[in-house]
Amino acid sequence: SFPTRRSSDLMGGIIGQLGIGRNWSGGFGGAMAAGAMGGLAVGALQQLPQLFRKIYSTGMEAHQADENFRAGLSRTHATVTQLNAEMALQHGYQRQIANDYAKSTYEIENLEARIVGFSGLTGEKLRHITELSLAAAKQWQIAPEMAARRLSVALAGGQGNLARFGITLTKGASQAQKLAEMDKALGGAMDSVKESTRSAYGDFDRLK
């Protein structure tokens, strides 16, 4: 079946752009749809087949991201019930992070799948390190996946080689202490990225 869970916001945004039915912004999907439609006028219905192919492609990418994430988490949770609860928790986090950092939810989900693979982190720590990774990528001018690897490996007790980026972690420090040091170094970048997103797109929370 067509994977609709990650495409529902995009569809909502398209409906809102076309002015069909009620004023449905579709949250972040509204902004995505506006870009995807490329200035599509309400009367330009001949462009809809191309648009829906783009929706389908987005849906397939989202579906694959979900499969990758589930596969990663399945190695850290003993039962299906625990796995499903973790998936539900992280999907909520992913939507908020996507809003704050102007990313698609499946981009965030793919990034988190990598972090789980690097470190086995879950729950609130996974959300926290994902945001730090996006901020670090911006500040250090490297790919989010590379930032995620350095931070998550260091948090999990490995060598993330963070000193070159100005983060010194005390040997034997707890994960909470390590996160505090990372926050100190990257908190400003996190705030800057979020503020830049709000300035460009508005506050997505009010559109949900």
Report on the architecture of this protein.
- With 208 residues, the chain is mainly α.
- The chain has helices at 8-18, 28-37, 48-73, 80-101, 105-119, 123-140, 144-155, 175-201.
- Helix 3 (48-73) packs parallel to helix 5 (105-119) and helix 6 (123-140) crosses helix 8 (175-201).
- Mean pLDDT is 76; it is low at 1-6, 17-37 and 204-208.
SSE arrangement:
Layout: H1 8-18, H2 28-37, H3 48-73, H4 80-101, H5 105-119, H6 123-140, H7 144-155, H8 175-201
Helix pairs in contact: 1-2, 3-5, 4-5, 4-6, 5-6, 5-7, 6-7, 6-8
Structure, briefly:
The chain is mainly α.
Radius of gyration over all CA atoms, rounded: 19 Å
Q: Approximately what portion of the residues adopt beta-strand conformation?
A: under 5%
**Overall geometry:** globular
Number of DSSP strand runs = 0
Structural class by SSE content: mainly alpha
Q: What's the rounded overall pLDDT mean?
A: 76
Spans where pLDDT lies below 50 across 5 or more residues: 1-6, 17-37, 204-208
Termini separation comes to: 26 Å
Characterize the biggest β-sheet: none
